[in-house]
Amino acid sequence: MDSAWTTTVLLVPCVVLLTAGFFYLYGVIMGLLSNKSVRNKVVVITDALSGLGKECAGVFHKGGARLILCGKNWEKLEELADDLANASDPTVTFPPKLVLLDFADMDSMPEAIAEILDCYGCLDIIIFNSSMKVKAPAQTLSLEVDKLLMDNNYFGPVTLAKGVLPSMISRRSGHLLLVNSIQGRLAVPFRSTYAASKHAVQAFFDCLRAEVEEYGISVSTISHNFISCSASGAPVTSKSLWSLLYTKKPLGVSPDEAAAEIVKTLNNKRKEVVIAPSLPKMAIYARSFFPNVFFAVIGAGVKNAAIAAEM
């Protein structure tokens, strides 16, 4: 027994070290493969001027992708393209192509889609990361604001997806990746129209996934609680469950973390990813399996916020 016990004591640390070493090597190998997975791929970023868009542009540009950077401001797009060119080796990268794209201007969408398709004649990956946010009581929002939100968060991405699908279907290849809010899965107060637009676009891409799978086209959705400017933030002062459910700091996801998750999702072709702390993830399941509890917690959060505002 003593000999067996001694052997066990010696073996356990060795097994732990070997296992840890295996996972470390696996992470290193996958990281190297990730950098090569987008080489020569035509990648569209619908909002390259956002924090996440710039981070993705940097990652994919260094990885050798043929980037098509979209945004509302031509001067800022040119600045971003110059920054990417100055920070990379021109012998292993491609100069980005720029396209003005504004989901709020639906009349300009046909021209923008045609321009995107003309850049390289085909598309491999589209990252739908554009978004418009509004926080206000439902009764204070005008119908014009509602329509603007739906154009930016639903009709715009859907129109672009429909416009490029024939090209992808003909090539039997492509990957559509929607960066969506966690409010496409559940909703919290004072974001009625925003949550409605996110639910709508989530449902569209969920339906589309099944429709285009036979053509070899992948559809992925990544739901986050909030993309912050950095990974760190000020401590949360409010202790209510409702405030923790959708707090920007410190529970937000940094742009580099979100970009890394996007690369991983593209490589693994995962259909659905949620990047959020444990509490928002628990809220998603609570909404499905314990709806009355979920509604009670959300309602209590509104009452607590109203009381705090009056004090």
UniProtKB/TrEMBL annotation:
Record-annotated membrane-spanning stretches: 6-33
Keywords: Membrane, NAD, NADP, Oxidoreductase, Signal, Transmembrane, Transmembrane helix
A single MF term (Gene Ontology): oxidoreductase activity, acting on the CH-OH group of donors, NAD or NADP as acceptor
Any Pfam family: adh_short
Record keyword Glycosyltransferase present: no
Keyword NAD: yes
Swiss-Prot/TrEMBL GO biological process terms: intracellular calcium ion homeostasis
Database matches in PROSITE patterns: ADH_SHORT (PS00061)
Family: Belongs to the short-chain dehydrogenases/reductases (SDR) family.
Protein name: Dehydrogenase/reductase (SDR family) member 7C
Organism: Oreochromis aureus
Gene: LOC116314308
